[in-house]
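To assess whether ligand presence alters the predicted conformation, the chain was also submitted together with zinc ion. Input:
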Amino acid sequence: MTDYRSYRIAFDEKELLVDRKLGSLRKDFLRDYCGHFNTLTDKQIWQSGLYRFCHFLPKGADLHVHCLACMPVKQTAAWAASVPGMHIHTGSLPGRGSLRVFSPGDTIPPEYVPYTGKEISEEELEKLWSTEGYNGTGSIWEWFETIFDRHLFATSDDIVLSYYKAVFDYYLSLGIQEVELRLLPFGTPEVAAQTARAIRKAYYEAAAAHPGFCVKLIGSGLKYAWIEPSMTESMLRNAAYIHENVKDELLGEDFMVAIDLVNEEDRSNDISFYAPMLKAITGEHPSLDMVLHCGESLHPGSRSMEDAMALGPRRIGHGYDLYRHPGLEKIIMEKDIPLEVCPVSNMSLKYISDVREHPARKYYSQGIPMVLASDDPAFQEHENMTDDFFIAAAAWEFSLSDLKRLAFNSIKYCSASPATKNSLLEEWTKRWNDFVLQNI
Ligand SMILES: [Zn+2]
């Protein structure tokens, strides 16, 4: 019986051969590729042997992805074109490229036309719906948030269900076994719970066709300084309501597993500002964890890592600037609190100009626990998770053994119950062994 707690990452002769293959694919890529691989928008990257290798590598789980930002442009466009009533804004910016669903009888603004997938070219959508479209005016985060505004299509539970069915099918096509979605639980508790039920329904349908697939939610409040604290509290309380009332009946465990605070950290209130709120809610709901975004900062004086760590989180979202807090590195290792490292997101949002210098490379070699995750693949990636593993393989020159550990960690640190983790691990081990045999 597989047990993730006693699982030892072994590396055999066959894997050594595949590791050699990885080394040679990397060498070929670095020799042939003339561009700057800090942006993964070049077809030459996607067509490379190294990228294909990362595509097929069994990557386990995606523990950090935001709701409504889950599928790359091509997949989002294909899904949107299939939705009855979907319209696209064909006027000028900032609205251009916005998707909205209108029902019969609605007043439709003249710039919106029915969307069939042809109204705006895929090349233009690649810019309008991703960080590639940022033209240097204002901050990258301002542009990034306009992309979210272009995707405010989830106006009914039916659309939520349809979107997540497409999302989970897409994740399954990539071989991802578990997905943890950061949900913004707006509205009344029951409205938020209905959204969660629609996502759960999509998950159940995906799991019926692919037994073993698993989805969890992490309820996220907004922490921008201009957001009323009462609004943040209502979102976190909605998360707690979902935690109590919308369970994963398929596995007999929690569906909403944790709370978090999101937004651009450097324009937000300190996490310590919300500490009483976070403590009160998790105190009232002891099985609800904290998984906290922090350390996603360009400010040398940022204390978000300390603030978050003081709250006892189960995982850290990003933890990019951990190097500024050497005292915390030891505590993170002792307490085994993993960082959800999102290298593509960090480079897309310009936290680092050269991804080869990403601090996670050093964190990993120090033994700091971590996983790789995609964050906002819709707006940042060509293929969820593949891009992040590609960065680890190409830019950080990680070995197959390192990639194996990162994939294993995604299961070890996911939010499923121990029994579910063991099932996920058993399946992942099979897939890993097949991958090795196919690459000898
Ligand atoms: Zn995030």
